[in-house]
User: Fold these one by one.
Assistant:
Number 1:
Amino acid sequence: MLFKLKIVFQWLKLKSRKVFSSQEHIEVYQQKKLQLFAEQVLVKSPFYKPYIKPHMDWNKVPHISKATFMDAFNEINTCGIKLNDAMQIALDAETSRSFNQELNGITIGLSTGTSGKRGLFLVSENERALWVALVMSRVIKPRLFKKQKIAFFLRANSNLYASVSSSLFEFKYFDIFKPLTDLLQELQTFSPHILAAQPSLLVDIAQAQHQQIIQINPNQIISFAEVLHAHDKAFISQKLQASITEVYQCTEGFLGVSCQHGTMHLNEDFIRFEKEWIDDDKFYPIITDFSRRSQPVVKYKLNDVLQIKSTPCACGSPLLALEKIMGRDDDILVINEQKIYPDLIARRIAIQTNNFQNYSITQIEQQALEIKLECEEKDAAITQDAFKKAITELLKEHGIYSVSLEFKMQQVRVPGNKLRKIIRAI
Ligand SMILES: [Zn+2]
């Protein structure tokens, strides 16, 4: 019950907040929040504490990559949680597929993200309450006096998402590890008002509706975790007869949401976005999330390429508007007409091994995958075996047995290019 009260509290706080009138207004607000964040949160982080005395010197604070974020895990978090303890809990949860593990009251999640390397994230109950309140106030369309059923398709369950059921909402979690036919059947039975999933799955669901395999009537569709391409958006919206809200969320935070005009606006009232420019209108975001407390995300560089919208959005919001999120455009492997989602492959590999710098998996023929692997020479054999195990097991689960795997030990990353982990080249 306490958790629900926390959500209501956060929700009321969000509702009572002043609306920003301009970018300048946001800037002033951010500076105030960043100062408080340093004094109240970063002071408890052994990693950031040295930068605070006597005054927070943001210019000296280093940019951080996912690798550093994990290497300095013990020093960065403010809860005294050790990486090894947390990793064990996260991996156990992943194999047993029961996701109720906590440590010192903190929920632990495992992520693979776009790099394919293991990442751990920590979320306290207060942070979860804020997340839910944010989703409720910004993403979900209100329907007064009627319980909303929300179907949520996720890579892995976590307390972060599963803990909300109330008189207003009923969440049902759909495990995307299950075969699509099972998921469709469950979806039909549940018959949600709101459908939230990654675009590649939304396309499958829309296709099933088109083929009259299912008949659902959602009022709203929420797309997250992958780039939503315009043609997919139109197809999904048309077949399911509902509008699409796009959520820009990653392990590192709830970064943005699309408005009623379909424009993605960044959540600059929680996160400061510094820009590492690529050209005139494209940049890599470097984020500082001043709403996080247990595991501060400070000057963290994301691999997503964001393109700024050149004209103001008709909705009038001063929050930074994007033309497009250009990154995260992973491909899906298609073998024997079965789709294998990139994040599923990456996750399986991350569970088997962490013994590599980089990899890419390219489908070069209908039944052949080429795996480029960058790792220490002494680890080559054992890492190849781990990859083989992860991939063949996953394919077997999809009824696919005859795919050849060809390994190439070589540098994967091309300087200046974004690393694409999973590529369908046919
Ligand atoms: Zn807008």
Note: Residues 53 and 101 are 36 Å apart (CA to CA).
Number 2:
Amino acid sequence: MIRRVVLFTFAVLLTSLPTAAHADWRAGAAKRDITPNIEPGKVVYVAGFGNNRTATGIHDPIWARAFAISDGQRTIALVVADVIGLFYEPDIVRIRQLVAARTPGVHVIVASTHNHNSPDTMGLWGPAPLISGINPQYQQWLRQQIADAVVESVRQLRPARLRVAAITNRHLADLQGDGRIPFVKDPQLFVMQATEKETDKTIFTFVQWSDHPETLGGKNRLITADYCGALCSELEERYGGVAVYANGAIGGLLGPLDIHVPVRHPKTGQITRPRSFEQAEAIGLWVAKYAQDALQNAEPIADTSRIDLRVKQTYIPLENIRFRALAAAGIIDRPLYTNGKPDRRREVRKLPELGGVKLPVALGQALRTELNVVTFGPVQMVTVPGELYPELANGGYVRYPGADYPDAPFEPVIREHMTRKYKVIIGLGNDELGYIIPRCEWDNRAPWLNNQPSETYGEINSCGVQVARIVTETLVELLRAVPAP
Ligand SMILES: [Zn+2]
């Protein structure tokens, strides 16, 4: 009997040895159309600018694009949807449940491109400020489509080679208009490509760069994926497989509406008009071109490298009085917490910020969110749950006269704590909490930053002044736990 047990244990050890000692990368990818139906009698509220912007048609489809990679033991999937933003609760939690029911054991990161030409998925852009623009049927279908893209990308996992590269240049920075001082940007473009081990066919091309997909401005009423659509189509045409694009540190505010140089279309050579589909396409094609340039010098990720994953939930105090009114009214439809416990309490208040009306307001409870750090080979990715001001990624904080907290300590600079060659920031990763603003630059009260004549834009779309510290300190904690290379 004893002898049989020993033999059995030995056999198990033998069969498990090859995967434990050496892993081949496996990769898969898939995408799903998430374009809403535009039909007579049905209103689709378009997210991103003012209230009551309704869609009149489709210019080009919007997508949920997913890739999965596996080291033989751990599998992670990243899916990016061409929408304005998705909440950790309920959206990301629900999408993960849908995935886990069909392909368990996969860590799923869900991000949004922050597309300003997509249906309202957060509730903020309905017919009037206190009426949600979410269509519940669309939202449910959207989550299902996002989950389906992930499930298929996992089922498609096959032996693969991975290679990565990054590129930064003046033109990539010029394509990021910057709407707020200090003019700190994050022009780095990161690209990762997976090819089939046997055939060399492309499985996916993943690009991460940073710019608001709002080229068309607030008057456009056609659904489009903005520059992200042109970028992904171009890469799919060039390489085959699925192209996936994720945004990065786009706060403070990086976007095409503030570009101050002429944008030439790379194919026609013509200068494009601001707020035009030609300009959106031109930006996408330029970014695709630089991704291709970068791939010429890509370096392979060794077959033996492993995926290290760090995950932490944390709580973000909801300080913004407008967001608190929206949460109390159920427009921002997510759970509130006090000391980590659900808490739906509210009070009725007169709000000078909202025209002096009396409204129910959440008490300043917290939202629950999640931060991730993924490390493999020379690559380290962090998720940020919103629109990060690039100073928090790269440094460059400035103490301006007029700031509300002129002596505030600087938050940790995220990339200074990242330990691998490729430092990738996934914006709107697993949540969209709005702007993540350095405390020393916070400016909600006159006089305005650097004695500018008018109010500083940004704080109105931030949960509050503590978000930056909580996000950066939590990431530093996770990054410190990653073993040295
Ligand atoms: Zn934004």
Note: Residues 1-22 have pLDDT under 50 and may be disordered.
